[in-house]
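cache lookup: miss for this entity combination. No prior model stored, computing from scratch. Input as submitted by user K.M.:
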Amino acid sequence: KNEVEQSPQNLTAQEGEFITINCSYSVGISALHWLQQHPGGGIVSLFMLSSGKKKHGRLIATINIQEKHSSLHITASHPRDSAVYICAASTGNQFYFGTGTSLTVIP
Amino acid sequence: DADVTQTPRNRITKTGKRIMLECSQTKGHDRMYWYRQDPGLGLRLIYYSFDVKDINKGEISDGYSVSRQAQAKFSLSLESAIPNQTALYFCATSDAGEKLFFGSGTQLSVL
């Protein structure tokens, strides 16, 4: 049983395209996280949100608590956005991770 | 300097060897975690600690042990490494607000 499901697993986009990655979760959460992992690199936290919407540069994260669903949007995608994006749900004591979405942005 | 430092970055070892992965943090967080990442499986929790005197098993603790030497240090040991412990290992910390901070990872290969 996966407490956090992400889609799609893999995504290829042309530079400049608008990208959406989806995350559904089944646990009661205190916060929903979006993480970024570059090839060979560590993992960094992009967003932590418990309601509504957050924006940082070209990245936007939204959450619908009633539907237990979150989305990560990337506007005007760029090759440097190529990475694995991981959704995680925190319950106060535990984190539950999705398997990640591998994004490739082609110039 | 990184907030969460893991050593070594890469390690190749042989079956049956004991190995220790080390993690130190400068964030001042009480909560520390060890995860392993395998292709297609996402991050899985090995052990976690919410305090120097608090150690808890995660979902895949068999074959692993940990030591919380200080608030800033949390080490992971493989007492007798086996090939299916080949994976990318991450140490992480979190604050009371639950934001996660990860180390750069340790790629471990067990031959």
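stored under new cache key. The first strand of chain B starts at residue 4 and ends at 7.
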